[in-house]
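S.,

Sequence below, as promised.
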Amino acid sequence: LGTSLVLKRFSMIGDGLSHTGFGALAVASVMGAAGSAYHITLPIVTITAFFLLRTGENSKIRGDTAIAVLSTGAVAFGSLLYNFSDQRFADLCNSLFGSAGIFTISNADLVFSILVSVAVLVLFVVFYNRIFAITFDETYAGASGINASLYKSLIAVLTAVTVVVGMKMMGSIMISGLIIFPALSAMRVCK
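The prediction came back faster than expected:
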């Protein structure tokens, strides 16, 4: 997934989505739903992913500018909301830095992470040719009959789900790096 994001010049979308996830976790914490934060975080981050991908098409604020505005706003909003939360110190550290290790997450979160990881991998493999086509030339892919908008939306959903699930273990600070750096490193080592 990271390779497609790097090649489409959407490297910072992971960062923007993780910051949005931080704000969404703050909303869940204030609502007292920190235990079921996926129900709040996943829809918010997915909607944000669609929004960020659409701003590049026809908007006055494009690409990294939209991501920067959204990221900064989400972190500021989340930080403000955490001040109203009863669990603000524990939730703030967990939201930013994730679990201390794989062994500290709950069994339900571990099972959910494994299921979502398998689903993301399967979808990426099944639709690899179409994703590959829109990654390199979206106009040509559209002209050859591929619904570029649909597969661009699929990339948005896969990225949003990966960020939300990864935030639980790695936190909002590290998850974007884990999406981008392995792909970028592999692209530097191999052609």
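Residues 59 and 66 are 10 Å apart (CA to CA).

Coffee later?
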